[in-house]
Amino acid sequence: MNKIIYYVSITLLTVVSSCGNKETNVSRKLTLDNCPVIAQVINLQGDPVTNLDFSSVKDTFNLPLSSLLSSFQVIRLENSEDALTAAGQDTHIAVSDHYILVKSFRAGSSCKLYNRNGDFIRKISSQGQGPDEYNLSIYDQYLDENNNKIYLMEIRASKILVFDLDGQPQKHIPLAYITHKGRFVINDEKKTVTVMCIPFQGTPTALIWTQDFEGNIIQEYPVSDQFMLIPSTYDYEVRESLNTNASDFYLHNCIASQDTLYHYDIDSNTLHPVFTMHTGHEPICHYFTELPNHFLVTWYTQTSWNNELPRFPKILVDKQSLKGCFVNLKWNMLGNIDGPTNPSFNRGYFTAIMEPYALKEQLEKVLTSNQKLSPEVLRKVKELNNRITDDDNCIVFIGKLKTK
């Protein structure tokens, strides 16, 4: 099968922001450097907290994706029947140096392993009632290539499933508590795992705890009233981006008009607030993502028929200058396409996945526009558009986040 892979050096790209953009209220001249200051650092019980005032965010500009990335790779996944997966809001990607793990609920709740060329390797576990299977769907996953391990946690979990890269079951990790929508961080050297979860009312649990691989608790951060979401349902989410040296924790919902992203200090077993947003009016469904140099605010509504989120501008805040604006992410390395509505920034990587018909639609729009693209970008857009068909498997995009 013919596959195409692009490795794009971001430093060599001609940065083109939004030529020919028809959106209203979008500045073609604005950049993050000349956006206004939209946040302030306040002291909250000894912790410096970046406080974003939503009412101060007025301007919108198109942000070149390359400004956040040091590399960018386009990978067409293999087209064999076993390799097929699906894009959508519930599809998540884990990345290592040589592998890609794709979890998709729409593709039968499958977890599939590929190499970084897009070649299908194998399916990892399956949905079922067996000791090495998951009952519902996978909520969090970790691909540890260095230690030849894959870790999977269900949406309601009593254990973390462990496999080697050959797909063989290893000794699973029993969890100290029944875990609802948990996120986890593995320390293979110490043989410990730190778990963050949604605390359910009336259920024994901690908000965050560290345990060994045998299920013995080492330390725990108890549940307080501010973190007890009532009613306790799966409508809430736990987010943890791990794009910095800190372990960030964000428990989000659409009820609170002001909420907070925290750093968890495992050494002192303490939570420290670092970022919050005050809307000043009715609540807006949103979530926070911490990037190496920025905070990113994404808001959303109900998913549409094709499991995609409606496209809204995001808010980007520079950690140092506190300047920020509404931004539309534009993939300038592919002619300023929009990409999917739900890209991910996790564990130092940008990842996204698209169905081929959706990608072709955006690429063809570029080719019929009056944008002034560099010859290199135009060549890549034409080549990619010519190589993919509507019957292809999904296309995965991977970028390494800039740290400076």
TrEMBL record:
InterPro entries, alphabetized: 6-blade_b-propeller_TolB-like
Pfam family, one: DUF5128
Gene3D superfamilies referenced in this protein's UniProt entry, alphabetically: TolB, C-terminal domain (2.120.10.30)
SUPFAM superfamilies in UniProt: YWTD domain
Name of the molecule in the record: 6-bladed beta-propeller
Species whose genome carries this gene: Parabacteroides distasonis CL09T03C24
